[in-house]
Amino acid sequence: MHHRDDWPTEPVLAATNRLALRDEALPRHLKPSAVLLHRQVRRRLRELDLALDRATDTYLASELRGATASLRELLACHFPLDSDRCPTCRNRLGRTHEWPCHVWRTAFALLVRRQT
Ligand SMILES: [Zn+2]
To answer: What's the predicted TM-score (pTM) here?
Structure first.
């Protein structure tokens, strides 16, 4: 099996994941539109978790809570911790992408824009 040593380990993901949910963790020089996108994706995920807290089908709620947790981890891997660049996405020349990258834009399109 192919093995990549530079894949994030779970503790790193967990720490990054917590940061990704906080406004104050965002780098200060992001564009206002990027800050808004982050806030709206985060708010939608929180809404989904609150809805799952109220769900009567506890099995289904538990399964779906795992799905939102997985999505948060995925988004955390693409979260700009110390610059306005995605730490994960690279173009063919190895350059990083400006944030929000494709992953966050897709999450926004599917979770937020589809609601309105
Ligand atoms: Zn990315």
So the answer is: 0.77
